[in-house]
Amino acid sequence: MYLTIKETADYLSVPEAAVKSLIQQKKIRALYDGRDYLIYKEQFNTHLKQIEKYKQLVDEILSEPIPESIDVKDED
């Protein structure tokens, strides 16, 4: 499925100018049909899956309790 620049911006939750800039920098692959750029939606799936994976990893790390240090001595 192909998206326009506006649809891509909505899908990625970024401004249209950012999408245009990424196309010009060749960080997003796009086809130019003579009037508009068309962007293949599936190219973002791997990236979005990776972001979700990193979010889960960070959540796991943050929810882990901090172990007590065996070097800490009770001063009482």
Please, could you describe this protein's structure?
By secondary structure, the chain is α+β, with helices and mostly antiparallel strands. It has a single domain (about 1-65), classed as Arc Repressor Mutant, subunit A, CATH 1.10.10. The protein has helices at about 5-10, 15-25, 45-65; strands at about 1-5, 30, 35-40. The chain has a three-stranded antiparallel beta sheet with strand order 1-3-2. Helix 1 packs across helix 2 (about 15-25). The longest helix has 19 residues, at about 45-65. The radius of gyration is 22 Å and the shape is rod-shaped. The model has no long low-confidence stretch (mean pLDDT about 90). GO terms for molecular function: DNA binding.
Please name the defining characteristics of this protein.
76 residues, SinI_DNA-bd, 3 helices, DNA binding, alpha+beta, 3-stranded antiparallel beta sheet, DNA binding domain, excisionase family protein, Arc Repressor Mutant, subunit A, HTH_17
Strand content: 5-15%
CATH topology: Arc Repressor Mutant, subunit A
The helix content is 40-55%
- Mean pLDDT across the residues is 88
Largest sheet: 3 strands, antiparallel
N-C termini distance = 68 Å
Q: How would you classify the helix and strand content by structural class?
A: alpha+beta
User: Could you list the spans in which at least 5 consecutive residues all have pLDDT below 50?
Assistant: none
Give the helices and strands as they follow along the chain: EHHEEH
Q: Count the domains.
A: 1
Q: Please tell me how large the radius of gyration is.
A: 22 Å
**How would you describe the shape?**
rod-shaped
**From the 3D coordinates, which CATH architecture would you assign?**
Orthogonal Bundle
Helical region count?
3
Strands of the widest sheet, in order across it, are 1-3-2
Protein name: DNA binding domain, excisionase family protein
Domain Helix-turn-helix: 2-50
GO molecular function: DNA binding
InterPro entries: HTH_17 (IPR041657), SinI_DNA-bd (IPR010093)
